[in-house]
Amino acid sequence: MKHFAFFKNPLAFCFYFLCFISPFASSNIELNLEYIEQIYIIGTKQDVNDLPGSGTVISNEDLKKLVDTDIQKVLLMVPGLYFRSEEGFGLRPNISIRGTAPDRSGKITIMEDGVPVAPAPYTAPAAYYFPTAGRIHAVEVLKGPASISQGPSNIGGVINLISTPIPEDHMGTFVQEYGDDGYLRTHSYAGLSSKNFGFILEAHENKADGFDTVEHLGGNTGFDKSDYLAKIKLNTERNAEGYHEAVLKLKTSDEISNQTYVGLTQSDYEINPRQRYGLSYFDEMDNQHDSIQLNYLFEYQDFRFTAVYFDNEFLRDWFKVEKINGQSINDVLSAANRGDVIAYGILHNTHPSEITLKHNNRNYYSSGFNFAAELDFSFHTLSIGYRDMKDEEDRLQSYEGFEQFGDGTYSQLSSAFFLGGADNSKRETKAQAFYLEDKIELERLVLSIGFRAEDYSRSEIRWSNILRNKILYQPETKSGHYNLWGFGATYDISNHSKFIFGFHEGRSPVFGDDAEAADNLEVGVRFDNGDTDFEFFYFRSDYSNLVAECRNSDGGDCEIGDAFSGGAVDVDGFEVTGSTIFQRHNISFPLAFQYTKTNSKFQNSFESDYFGTVVSGDNVPYLPSSNLAIVAGFILPSGIEGNLRMARVGKTCSTASCNSFNAIDAYTLVDLSIKKLITEDLVLYGTLENVLNDSNIVARAPKEGIRTQKPRSLKLGIEYRF
Question: What is the DSSP string of 588-614?
Fold first, then answer.
């Protein structure tokens, strides 16, 4: 069984061994409670109030309220974010911040513990890897001018996921969940700290059988993912000579998921929204991610210096349908949607056809150094940072195929063959980034001025044979440079309210094309009196060059990896968020909400292999007009608490022209959770997702292929702290 097989992993074995011995090892330990792991870009929730711009911190306490393992649901309460769901489990999220393209979250900077974790942030930022949300301790979302210190993509903002910290004392946690459709999750960690040493070991396993049924063949449509992490900390005592701390973090994960890009036609969705076509039976994602991170901190009085080395490697082979009788997936779906009998027969295997599958086999690598220093003066704080890194994408992609005989039966897969061109290539980027930021405090007014400079060089090579000794294509190395600046200001209107204004230039790198660029503005007010908080922000992004990249989810109508310019685009809108707690008869009723309204318009008319026919004034695909989320809960003195979450996602479209087979109507999501504190260390809980059991269309990817909301599902769990 899988749960016992993972003992073969050395890190997993060490985790269980140390979980056993750590209670004995912790005796007579003198604790140092003041160590700092340098992983935050905002800090605590209280630090958000002092930001010269908009930002959100989702604490560990917040994460435990609804026990989500889907990062898109975790982020539902953050204003200004949009999501395009895919397989229902959040394995490969599509996240947009303030109008950026959501595809694979490639237009925002995804970080874990302050380090970029996209497979190759400059060369191929599309997040086919995303940190496992179930093991994440907290989340930070940074928007506005404060994000200029981060990169490489900072038009919309930054999402920084915080891993489980090394505990201040000996402690551990064990979580076990069971649910519908073979759902199973096990999460455990244990660690301790002494005066000058600390460690933590963590294991997270998650799997499900899936909720879709493959026509004719059946089979598993779920996933199986394992994640292991270890941290070791060494530190000095705090004294007149300063403080030193070093933290080594090691992480490894692997995943197999039976996911497809073949969506449903409109008529098939209306008959059975939980089906998959038999031709998608062999589709499978197989990946592994390994990372090393070494943090060093030195503090002396008002001076702080940090240095970080990081190394990430991501290997994946997404074996999935590429062509159907030589046509793209979307072409066949489009023909079937319009009543083509042959296309409909191909999808249901009542008409003979040849299916070509592709091993989207790619290795990604990124490594580098971050250096940052901060110095506090009497009325301002100066921050300076430098990053030197390189990343690469290596492709060696083969094809296989099989036949549908037209009677519900299928042939075996044929042998693989290799092609040259983009399927046999390597792309690499080397980049150096520098930023300078000064925060000036002038009584009630706080100014923040930031500058960022980027230098990069890009190279590419394609081979015509497997041995890679015959070069097919090798353009000259391309180098470039750009400068960005921004500023933010906060003014204390009263003891509890602030006015915020900010502007920053943003960039998102695109390999082989000009970078996506936009000027970004935000104006807002913030209120917080301790019991109630409220924020309102107006934001605007003027894109001088919106860029989209072709992905397999588009249906194969373009060359995967090619970039397409959408020209000038205007995006604006507003965000409202707030929370409070009501008290009645010793019962607490927490309430929180967020609402985002967004307008997005192309400023040009043009024809594109990617965007299709675009008329000036058309909406940008996959950016809903609105997004509302509400969480209402109760906390009883007996230790019982519950939360109801409702999200309403506005209508959108998979194309700018938006015909009837591209439209995605507004839909609602309702989740319910309840937990009972049995003892101080033991908690029982349950979560009911999609309470209304809706089967709404949440995406069309490819452009006319329907994907639906995950069906109603129940999860029951236990958490034990020791």
Answer: EEEEEEEEEEEEEEESS-EEETTTEEE
Residue 247 near residue 37 (C-beta atoms within 8 A) = yes
- Between residues 709 and 38, which one has the greater pLDDT? 709
Q: How far apart are alpha carbons 705 and 544 in whole angstroms?
A: 31
| pLDDT 10s digits, 342-400 | 999 999 999 999 999 999 999 999 999 999 999 998 888 999 999 999 999 999 999 99
CATH code of the domain in which 660 resides: 2.40.170.20
For 477, which DSSP code? P
Report pTM. Answer: 0.92
Q: Round to whole Å and give the CA distance between 427 and 420.
A: 14
Q: Which helix (H) or strand (E) holds 159?
A: strand 158-162
Confidence of residue 274 (pLDDT cuts 50, 70, 90): very high
Task: Indicate if the pLDDT at residue 24 is higher than 50.
Answer: no
Question: What token pair was written down for 144?
Answer: 């506005």
Which residues are within 8 A (CB) of 334 and not within 5 positions of it... i.e. 6 or more apart?
Answer: 661, 703, 704
Domain of residue 112, residue span: 2-721
Cα-based distances in Å from 624 to 127, 254, 404, 408, 516: 21, 33, 38, 39, 21
Number of domains the chain contains: 1
Tokens coding 298: 């030195």
Residues pairing with 480 in the sheet: 456
b/e map 202-240, b = 16+ CB within 10 Å: bbbbbbbbbbbebbbbebbbbbbbbbbbbbbbebbeeee
Does the pLDDT at position 231 exceed 80? yes
Residue type, 479: S
Strands 213-214 and 275-276: parallel
Question: Residue 322: which region, alpha, beta or left (left: phi > 0; alpha: psi -120 to 50)?
Answer: alpha
- Three-class DSSP category at 348: coil
Calpha distance 49→52 (Å, rounded) = 9
Per-residue model confidence as pLDDT tens digits over 155-192: 999 999 999 999 988 999 999 999 999 999 999 999 99
Q: Are 648 and 666 in contact (CB under 8 A)?
A: yes
Peptide bond into 152 cis (omega under 30): yes
Lowest mean pLDDT among 90-94, 137-141, 474-478, 557-561: 557-561
Under 8 Å between Cβ of 651 and 663: yes
Length of the chain counted residue by residue: 722
- Which of 700, 658, 622 is CA-nearest to residue 82? 622
Written as six digits, the tokens of 362 are: 């790619």
Yes or no: say if 396 and 419 are a contact pair by the CB < 8 Å rule: no
Where are the extended beta strands (E) located within 493-532?
497-508, 516-528
CA atoms of 690 and 94, how far apart (whole Å): 20
3 state SS for 638-665: CCEEEEEEEEEECCEECCCCCCCCCEEC
Quote the CA–CA distance of 298 and 246 in Å, as a whole number.
Answer: 9
Q: Is the peptide bond before 702 cis (omega within 30 degrees of 0)?
A: yes
What pLDDT, on a 0 to 100 scale, did the predictor assign at position 4?
A: 35
pLDDT of 244 over the 50 cut: yes
Q: How far is CA 40 from CA 58, 158, 312, in A?
A: 12, 12, 19
Q: Are 722 and 700 in contact (CB under 8 A)?
A: no
Extract the tokens encoding 266. 């409109």
Give the pLDDT score at 27.
34
What values do phi and psi take at 326, rounded to 5? 80, -5
DSSP code for 557: S
- Interval 416-468: pLDDT, tens: 777 777 899 999 999 999 999 999 999 899 999 999 999 999 999 999 998 99
**H helical segments located in 540-591:** none
Number of Cβ within a 10 Å radius of residue 155: 29
Q: For residue 380, give the DSSP letter.
A: E
CA–CA separation, 378 vs 442, rounded Å?
11
Determine contact, residues 213/190, Cβ cutoff 8 Å. Answer: no
